[in-house]
Specification:
Elements (H helix, E strand, L loop, with lengths): L3 H8 L4 H7 L1 E5 L1 H6 L7 E6 L12 E3 L2 H7 L8 E6 L11 E6 L4 H13 L4 E5 L8 H7 L7 E5 L1 H7 L3 E11 L9 E6 L7 H4 L4 E4 L14 H12 L3
Parallel strand pairs: 2-3, 5-6, 5-9, 6-7, 8-9, 8-10
Antiparallel strand pairs: 1-4, 2-4
Helix pairs in contact: 5-6, 5-9
Amino acid sequence: MLTAHTIKVLQSLDKKKFRQKYNLFLVEGNKIICELSNSNFKVKEILSTDPQKLDRSDIPVTHISENELKKLSFLKTPKDSVAVCYLAEEEKWEDKNIQLVLDGIQDPGNLGTIIRLADWFGIEQIICSEDTVDVYNPKVIQATMGSFTRVNVVYTDLVEYLSKTENVNIGTDMEGENIYTFQKPEKLNLILGNEGNGMRPETEKLVQKSISIPRFGKSQSTESLNVSMAAGIILGQLFSK
C-alpha cells in the first residue's frame, strides 16, 4: 500500500515546479522504463502491477494495485508500471555538427516527437529557449517513446547562444530556399519556431540562411505545417544529401 503522502507527491510531478522541488520525474510503461537501464538516468524506484515482467534486481520494485496505478498515472489508459526517476544533473555541453534549436515550442507532443525524430536521425543534442516546454513534462516523456534517454536537451538563452555559435543558423521561411535544392552546410543549427508565432524577432535576426518546404498541392491553400511534421520533412531531405 502506498501512503497518501507518496501518492500526493507523485501526482504533483505533472507540474514543473514540483519536479524541480523533489528533483523527480515519472516514466510510464515497461517499454520506455526498459530504456532507462541503458541511459545515464538514475531510477529511484519502480511501482508496478506486475513486477516480474520487469526483471530488475538493481533497484527497488514495489508491487501496487491497479487502483493505485490509476491514481499515479497521467495517461487515460494507465500502463503496467511507473518509474520514479531523478532529474539529470546539468552538464557542460558544446556544439554538435547538426543540432535542432527550438524557439518557444509549447506543445508537449511536438517536443516529444521532435526528440524522437532527432534520435532517429542520430542528432545527439537539441538546444531550447528557456520558455520551451519542459522535457520532463509527462506528455513529452511519453511522446519520445524512450528517445529522451539518447538525446541531450539543453535550455539556454537563445540570442546569446546563436550569436556565438560557429554552426550556420538555418531558419524556415515561406520565401526561403527550396529544401530540395538546398546544399547542407557541414555544421548547422536548424531553428524551429513557436507553433503559432514562429521564431521571435530577436532569434530571426540571427538566422544566416532560410529554407522552405514547397507545396505541391493544386489548391496551394494549406497555410502551414505542424512544426514536428516540418522538422521530419526537413531532416529527411538534409540527410538524403
